# Entry
Amino acid sequence: MNKRLLIFCLFALFLVSCQSTVLPTRASLAMVPGGLPPTFTPVPGTAVATHTPVAFLPVLPPTNTPGFIPTNTPIPPTSTPTNTPTPTVDGTATVVIKPISAYGLQEAIPYQAFPKPPGDNGWGMHWIPTVSQERGVVDQFVAEMVRMHIKWVVFLNEGTNIGDNDYLVDRLVANGIMPVMRLYRDGVLPYDGNLAAMVRHYRARGVYYFQLYNEPNVNVENQQGFANPDQYARAWADAARVVMENGGLPGIGALSPGGSYNHLEFLDRTFYALAYNGDAYLLNHAWLSAHNYHGTRPYNDPGGFLLFREYDKIVQAHLGRSLPIVGTEGGSYHPDPNADRQLIEYQYTYMRSREPYFLAFSYWLIANRAGGGHDSQWDWQALIRPGYTHPVVTEFFYKNAR
# Structure
């Protein structure tokens, strides 16, 4: 064999070996946890946004760990927040504002049209971590919400139960407070009972916002033992469809910044899955729940209180518009009580000039044992405890109407 023929043969063998070691296809990656989402074919005539990659945050400790401070390394807060530009929808577009019931299922509700309480200031509060309370407890803490100038309250409902939270909802609405109902469910499973009847019942009492599931990117929240955005997208869509058809606004369950599946990546792939499954239209009436815990981060850390900006980037990349975001859990829990108070004051003061799609921020939580809560691990995070009231309540909330 001459030298030229030998070189040719060796080169041919090299090409064959390269073909046998090609990278996995997009379809094969979509079949494994953490793989790329499947592609989808857009419907003719619809606008399809291209996705801009988002830098993912490091995985943090789970938020349900006793003594949790949501950061890896304590960092002293900076004195002045930095305003990071956020992508915006074309300012020349005309936004049509109509009564919420006038939007068809195939018509996107702009965030400007989502219901807000009278005298809205964006100040929210997570209620007591039980699925119902005695009337005396409801009266006590609704009065506290009024005194603290809170306009949004997030509370738990036992799945599709009808009745246990009637009195709470009635007292909130009567005092000009927007109720946000989280439908408590142990795992990403179909809701038991009559979801349609429950939504109709509470819509008639003044509830618009229904959060479906909670922290689905946490393994223990999933009955199969691992987080899966495609499974969540299907379960959420099944429930969201019922909520929409009965006049409610379905909320995408808040993701855990410390979940086993990166929360930004999970949200991104949930949107891909909804589109792939033909369920993207459900986002026309949807909103996004956020757990923007801050810990001891600097004020301007995008992974803390300002996390809603990162979510908005993902939403806009998929939809070309912003979805309303409601912070349903948050807080600072700084080991220095004075610094903790300053951080909470910063968060609520920020809401006076917040991005308009960020409807509310809610501290976790107003009370635990003082309101009949039975899980002692949450007590140190409550603003009001037996024999103790956080100074931010008396020195900031009581004194600031706006």
